[in-house]
Specification:
263 residues; alpha+beta; 5-stranded antiparallel beta sheet; 4-stranded antiparallel beta sheet; 9 strands; 24% strand; globular
């Protein structure tokens, strides 16, 4: 099997959009993820210097991707734990993104350095906007499964909509495991994910994982000094938060044991 950055992005999109067929349930997942990590990639763009979106001349196209909008409404309902009828469409506009990662930084993905046509879709619930970016392949292709037809979609403002309870739980875990106070941490990325039983983390090749769909988040957290970073895979409320060591630069805090000498 020949792996290319497009192939890795394609399978990542499956997990991102909530497919019940998660990579973690596949026998090739550990080898595939390891191979993808070795692909050449461009230097990640800092969050403060995200690539500029190039507007498409066809913005406001009446031919909106109704199937995509319906899927995203269901995702927002599930992740915000609000009824589907409370999720409203604000806008759906054509865009031409500056690269294959839709102008956003992904911690574990190689990006195609080429303009990418797609959509920007904004939904709202309970006074809060959820802004999504997608590429164009939202159309049926003969021989492809529904998951393969979905394309690549990212929530651009996950940091804003992440539930406070989830953030608090993960920050508390970092404080316990690494000795860094919550006040010294900042959340830099938050993407909705659907995990399998291993939460997308594999300790050994061909690691068995239960076939289940667990909605949750991938969170990237940094220390205020910027010299330590953590990537966590969580369930919706953060009660189950697992460190991804391959995408983290911090080590657990050392504990000291004082022994009292007695003659």
């Amino acid at each position: 099997m020949i792996l290319r950055p497009q192939t890795c992005r394609h399978w990542l999109s499956i997990a991102t959009l909530g497919s019940v067929i998660a990579l973690s349930t596949m026998a090739i997942a550990p080898q595939f993820i390891q191979a993808c990590s070795l692909l050449p990639s461009t230097q990640p763009t800092p969050l403060s210097q995200r690539l500029e979106v190039i507007p498409d001349t066809a913005q406001g196209d009446a031919n909106q991707p109704t199937e995509l909008i319906a899927r995203l409404r269901r995702q927002v309902a599930n992740w915000s734990q609000q009824p589907l009828e409370a999720i409203a469409l604000v806008s759906a506009e054509r865009q031409r993104w500056s690269d294959g990662c839709l102008g956003l930084y992904l911690p574990d993905t190689a990006c195609l350095a080429a303009e990418t046509p797609g959509w920007q879709i904004t939904l709202t619930v309970d006074g809060q906007e959820w802004r999504y970016r997608t590429n164009e392949p939202w159309r049926e292709t003969a021989g492809e499964t529904p998951e393969m037809q979905q394309g690549f979609t990212l929530l651009e403002n996950g940091v804003e909509v992440l539930p406070a309870a989830t953030r608090t739980a993960v920050f508390a875990q970092i404080a316990t495991d690494y000795g860094v106070a919550a006040e010294q941490l900042r959340l830099t990325l938050a993407y909705p994910k659907v995990w399998g039983g291993c939460f997308g983390i594999y300790e050994r090749p061909a690691q068995p994982c239960t076939m289940q769909a667990i909605p949750g988040w991938q969170l990237v957290i940094e220390s205020e000094s910027g010299d330590r970073g953590w990537t966590y895979h969580t369930n919706l409320d953060g009660s189950d938060a697992r460190l991804n060591p391959g995408l983290s630069s911090a080590r657990p805090a050392e504990t000291s044991v004082q022994l009292e000498w007695q003659p």
